[in-house]
């Protein structure tokens, strides 16, 4: 099915709410071979006080989301995904930027994530944003026993970013 994509639509970032879960599951299922369930997202939003989830909307339509756990001064990305029809337009980069900015604003100084060793697209995005490989978790993914690459980035302090732009 063809989808109409607004070239200059309004892009908005906001925190995820429980009502977003059906839209998030659509993105989740088209993005991951081991998609999280409705219960998993509900649990993250209601019980996990370390969790922060963000929705990216284009013209009021959720087209991506990202999440992290903030523990001490380290942010752990749990997932990031953009709807298939909207990929390759720098929107994933905008979403990751926003997540990193939010983490820095919350006082986080470093960010980490795991990514499948075969996921070169995501690795390219992370490297572009300053993440560097820091080892492997062997057989981390249960569907095919694939290894995870661990990556880390230092976050720019929130104030510095704003000054850099002025
Ligand atoms: C990873 C993902 C979020 C990237 O979002 P996106 O909007 O398609 O990416 P962007 O257009 O912002 O591209 C940002 C960078 O990603 C990399 N990238 C994006 N598409 C790529 C492609 N088809 N081939 C190689 N690299 C690619 C590039 O480094 C790109 O920077 P560049 O355009 O300057 O070269 C998206 O592909 C996605 O949702 N994938 C499925 C879920 C997933 O794998 N999540 C990560 C789990 S760890």
UniProtKB/TrEMBL annotation:
PROSITE patterns cross-referenced by the UniProt entry: GNAT
CDD domains registered for this protein in UniProt: NAT_SF
Molecular-function GO terms, alphabetical: protein-N-terminal-alanine acetyltransferase activity
The keyword Ribonucleoprotein appears for this protein: yes
InterPro entries with a match to the protein in the record: AcTrfase_RimI/Ard1, Acyl_CoA_acyltransferase, GNAT_dom, YpeA/RimI_acetyltransf
Entry annotated with the keyword Nucleotide-binding: no
Alphabetized UniProt keyword annotations: Acyltransferase, Cytoplasm, Ribonucleoprotein, Ribosomal protein, Transferase
Recorded GO CC terms: ribosome
Origin: domain of life: Bacteria
N-acetyltransferase domain: residues covered: 11-156
Family: Belongs to the acetyltransferase family. RimI subfamily.
Name by which UniProt lists this protein: Ribosomal protein S18-alanine N-acetyltransferase
Lineage of source species: Bacteria, Bacillati, Bacillota, Bacilli, Bacillales
